[in-house]
Amino acid sequence: MPQVNRLARTTCPYCGVGCGVTATLESGQLIAVEGDREHPANYGRLCVKGTALHETLGAQGRLLMPRVDGQEVSWEQALTVTAERLQAQRTAHGPQTVAAYLSGQLLTEDYYVANKLFKGFLGTPHLDTNSRLCMASAVAGYKRAFGADAVPCSYEDLEEAELVVLVGSNLAWNHPVLYQRLKIAKERNPLMRVVVIDPRVTDTCEMADLYLGIRPGSDAYLFNGLLAWMDDHNRLDAVYLERHTEGLDDALGAAKQSAGSVEAVAHECDVDPERLETFYYWFASQLHVVTLYSQGVNQSSSGTDKCNAIINCHLAGGKIGLPGAGPFSITGQPNAMGGREVGGLANQLAAHMDYHTPGARELVSRFWTTQHLTPVLPDAPGYKAVELFDAIERGEISALWVMATNPAVSMPDGEKVRRALAKCPLVIVSECVANTDLLPFADIVLPASGWSEKDGTVTNSERRISRQRGLLPAPGEAKHDWWILCEVAKRLGWGEAFDYTQPWEIFDEHARLSGYENSGDTQRLFDISGLAGLGQSAYDALAPIQWPVTQQAPRGTARLFEDGRFATPNGRAKLLPITPRPPAQALSDDYPLRLNTGRIRDQWHTMTRTARAPRLMNHRAEPFIELHPEDAARAGLTDQGLARLTAAAGEYRGRVRVSHAQRRGEVFVPMHWTDCFTKQGRSGALIQGYTDPLSGQPEAKQGAVAVSKLLAAWQATLLLANGLDAPSSPWCRSDYWARIPMASCTRWQLADSQPVADWLAQVAAWCGVPASLWCDDPATGRLRAAGVVNGRLCWWLMVGPPDELPGLAWLEARFNDATLETRHRRRLLAGCDDGAVDTGPVVCSCHQVGQASIVKAIHAGDTSVEALGARLACGTQCGSCLPELKAILEEERPHARAKQTANTEVA
After folding, report:
1. End-to-end CA gap in the chain
2. Sign of the dihedral through C-alpha 819, 821, 825, 828
3. How far is Cα 353 from Cα 148, in angstroms, rounded to an integer?
4. Is residue 905 pLDDT above 70, yes or no?
């Protein structure tokens, strides 16, 4: 008999919002997820990616066995070889030739053990994390201003603010649950204003009372100008500045030199002066202001300065340490902050200690009892991410262990990174997915557990620690990352220091270290010693809680710096003099367009998880190049055509999206596509390796590219039954291809510059199954064909541009038919049944509602978001599609009214 349904609480593995999830398990299977109504990060809300989590599980496509030199081996052999080869490199070349590259996808317990092993026992400082690519500038900015990497705000502050400023953050797509919280708060408080500052008109702008479409990279001018304006109009908080800060005069001097007037700032930022001054007046006039900033600020060669320019304005106005006030950096990954807590960055030690803090190195060494080791704990920071791969290419690093990330895709100057990986004598990869761009470079592959299997903690953007609970057994021989690290450490001779048997033991040590000698003059802000000694049962039951958690604050701390005392030696926050700098990647005649990269609504990082849920592929199915109509026309491009971007570092190919949301002279591409899903669709190949000199964060938002048409003699859509699909298939030699997983088959979009003389022979050679049905039009070059074996559909082909495709739902369902019915076989080449309705491109991924259905409902009289939701359910779950629904409504309402008027007149 099947087991009774069991509910379990865990945490979403996607963005830094850190939503609580309630999972339903039946007979050992996770069958459904929904938002945890009691979790304070989301109160039951989930975005479309979160609601599809249970669709991404299963053993298919997972790494199931360890591999050494391409051969599957036992865990005993894999662990022994890993330890022996690491030790051989360390002995032959020294500890500083060993390195690790980690991920915000790891749990805090995994991170802690990795940092302890590499820095504390292997003796190398070269351990960094992919959080370097997204949050390092925010970390450096906070440390310079506050003395600690301490986000001062809570999500509740978004709801208590009178003004919320969104800078470089497409909240609606990248943190949709927070977007919904803010949207509801704004509806409840008519006095609340929202300002969006972003070069692109994104879906987040739908909520904006004021939009500033600034020139990319000009943020420091904008906020320097705000600081100068506040001083000129007597809007500085003199009392707060006197009691709690230092550095105002230098900061003001630099601000007035670079941004001394509204007109000067408007020119540098390329915005309307009146709109700019409106923003300045709103900010200066309100005490309860939250500035929410993300990758648009951080991913810059001067990202730290931009963060401090924002923080300067909050300190100068006393807009911090209050409900609804503060500079709020929102993280990109589920545990980017947890990794920072345990020393996951190359310039950190552990528990928010670093190499430059007097006595910190000795303190950590005492706690880990590593004083007797040779070599001892490193005495200087290691290589940051971009520096690390440069060092590998130079031959300085001879052993690299990569865990839960894909630098072959995500790093800037991607071709250079791949050359470095190919040269590295020893590459170890811990990974849960069987097919990534990184694995071909690996000498040792170790299968790791994934979400729903891993057990530990994560820390979200508001410093809230939550449990990510293990609900299912890991498939095959996959093991937890902390266990793998401990087993290697034991084989290196350090078994006593890594004798953990459960995650709670690691968390307990982490909590004790945070409180170790943490008092008096050496007091550190990060302190969770109040969570030490929990034991297994209390750890299992741990409720979400914000650090610091101490004896004085046993229930956690929602807001920092309420008393105006900071974590600097003198307790004062520092205002920094900021001199704006242009992007390091300069535009030129060869590369005249400014490139912006970023996430899209329904995908996550390199798609290893989200592509396992086919409905998440429907909103944006292919890599794309979004640009202004004038730039498209100048390059001879049309909407939905194919184009290529070229840069000094590489090339990118994608489908054109013409949009007035783009500024002239600028272009946007998504960051998600990899060699597993497309040909030359990696955004990192376009970005040069320029970094912020303080944070080491790459400049991923201000590239320099040229655009041109991708010439194609033909385009085609090929649907393949599961089992015929393979990444090494012959059609992957086409000039353009995109692989799009569907529930019952795989869709390939193809294009090439070389004509095909005989399409029926070509597709038969590709698929190994000849055409059973076909029709063609030689005059136009159009063809449709299908391969059927024993009554079962194996493949379906349309030669022609994809805008001629029928809705694919009916066709996809035919791949499930054990034997095609006669009526279905007759309609196979048409691609749809008699009377079938094409619902159009998917707008609402939660309920799979297409644009054509929405337009039809609007014309039928549903001329509000609420009416559309009542009829079609679109926009009623996660709300991510609401801005798109409103845009469609705005476009279609006049047509609907005209139609209704005409009908009335006829009546």
Report:
1. 62
2. negative
3. 9
4. no
